[in-house]
Amino acid sequence: KIDGLITDNAKSVTSLFHGCTALHTISHPLDFSSVTSQIDTTFTSCKQLSYVRFSGTINVNIHVNGCPKLTVDSLLSLLNALADGVTEKKCKIGTTNLAKLTDAQKAIATDKGWTLE
């Protein structure tokens, strides 16, 4: 479990949690509003991560497909944090997580212009 991690001024979060195979909870909301690089290796191999909340706005490609145990609430927090009106941006959550969401929930991302994979 990680408590109190402040990310609201971070420009890059590359590999922040990469390989944290036993991590199951990030209790403080992650604010990636200032991040300017892809969030692609940040959550690689976080196979036990089930709870994470996002605040602010995500404006870059994000991959959480290495986190197959994310709760629907965690996934919805991510989708709601995605910036509106983007083009050619991808949110990779993986097939296991995609299967947890309804079409209406998936539309939270796609209606904003995101490709959900």
Kindly describe this structure.
This protein has about 120 residues and is α/β, with parallel strands linked by helices. The protein has 3 helices and 5 strands; from the N terminus they run βββαβααβ. The protein has helices at about 70-80, 95-100, 105-110, and strands at about 25-30, 50-55, 60-65, 90, 115. The strands form 2 sheets. The chain has a 3-stranded parallel beta sheet. It has a two-stranded parallel ribbon with strand order 1-2. It is globular and about 30 Å long. The model has no long low-confidence stretch (mean pLDDT about 95).
Briefly say what this structure is.
By secondary structure, the protein is of the alpha/beta class. The chain contains three helices and five strands; from the N terminus they run βββαβααβ.
